[in-house]
Amino acid sequence: MGKAVARSEWAPLRRVVVRRPGLEVFFGLLEPYSSLYERVFSLEKARREHDELVQTLRRGFGVEVLYLEEILLEGAGRDPSLAEEILRRVLATVQFVGPGARRARQEFAENLPLLDRDQLLEILTLSPSLTLVRKKGTRNILPFTTLKVPLTNLFFLRDQQAVGDRGIILARPAKPQRRRETEMTALAWATLGEDPVLTVRRGTFEGGDFLPAGDFALLGMGDRTSPAAIQEILASGLGFPEVAVVHQPRHPLLEAPDPMVNMHLDTYLNFAGAGLMVGYPEMLNRARVDVYRRSESGRYRLRQRTRLTRYLKEEHGFDLLPLTTLEQLCYATNFLTVRDRRIVVPDVARNAEKVLVNLQRAAERNPGKYHRLLLRASVEFGELRSSGGFFPHGRAARDAGLGATQVPLSNLTGAFGGAHCLTCALERA
Question: How many CB atoms lie within 10 A of CB 78?
Fold first, then answer.
């Protein structure tokens, strides 16, 4: 098994890690907004979509696909110290309150080794606690179970880390709902013998804000990734000759900011191959860029400030496959490049109707903020549907030699992410 490394998004994909949506998503769907989901969706269909994505990578492209929970389960079976660590974390997670709480906790601790290991991982994912209420009668004790912020986004395995030219950078998610996810993934990387080159301690950073591109890399900075984390990564996380820090742009059609519309860099830009980028021009033109060059001493120093389109086109020779406003909203850039100019992409046309319905509801609640965005997206929907030109079916993609395999992800995208977000690209040749 090779080392975790990725020097470009288009280097042949060898190994990815995924997490099939579990029981935690059921609880997340009870209140999508606080779970950081875009909309409600079918959990059963989302699981089938995830299975199809995995089979596409395995059978269609020969990619080794590892499941996060299997890494941990197999590792615990081989390594007693990992098994003990999981037990320790489970014991610290579950709290007991009320009459008989001390007895219940003691019994729980004694019984932990008897639980199946997959039960232990479920406990870490759901984070349950019990409040015991005594009623009249023999052994009439009612256990009220509370889940303390279950890891409803754990199946988006892009964000808990980034994999660059020096190895894994362990992230520090911005939203409290996601903070504990890195505890799970860190255990998995240790099991695989992959020591992170950096664990972000200051500020916040998420993997969707990182795109390696050969002789340079992009780091998005905004709602999810902070300046403090950027400086920490530049200090010890990367070895690229050049790193460009991209300031998250405001959506040009929104009257007030909504960072969820372009929460990560990969929601409006991605690399489909050497010299080929796919993106939303109106954001790319607005995005400010601070370009850092690596000196002989190994330190990154600010070299220039520019705009993202100009930087990628003029300084690195990238051609742009432009997306419409609607296609950007439908996660067209959230594809996974498996090799140069070959991508696995969400079915953008299938996503469009659900995205429009959700946008319509948002505009009804807040017409001043979302009206212009809805109007543009609605017009584009009619044009794209009549022409059959939803990405990646347009002429520009064909002329660029882009090959695409579509996967139905219209339910999974309801949680704000596509094929890129769902996969940790652990190794690229």
Answer: 9
**Residue range 324-381, pLDDT digits in tens:** 999 999 999 999 999 999 999 999 999 999 999 999 999 999 999 999 999 999 999 9
Q: Which residue has the tokens 């965005």?
A: 373
The answer to whether 280 touches 295, Cβ cutoff 8 Å, is: no
Task: Give the residue from 141, 333, 302, 163 showing the smallest Cα distance to 237.
Answer: 163
Higher pLDDT, 256 or 411: 411
Residue 214: left if φ>0, alpha if ψ -120 to 50, beta else—which one? left
Distance between CA atoms of residues 44 and 34, nearest Å: 21
Residue spans of alpha helices (H) in 79-180:
80-93, 101-111, 117-126
Q: What is the pTM of this model?
A: 0.95
Beta carbons of 127 and 150 less than 8 angstroms apart: yes
Q: Which residue has the tokens 């979302």?
A: 370
- Residues 66, 20: Cα–Cα separation, whole Å: 11
- If you count them, how many residues does the chain have? 429
From the list 330, 373, 376, 335, the residue with the least C-alpha distance to 349 is 330
Q: Spell out the domains of the chain, with CATH numbers in brackets.
A: 13-65+152-428 (3.75.10.10), 72-147 (no CATH)
Per-residue pLDDT tens digits for 93-111: 999 999 999 999 999 999 9
Q: What is the DSSP letter of 414?
A: G
User: What's residue 1's pLDDT?
Assistant: 58
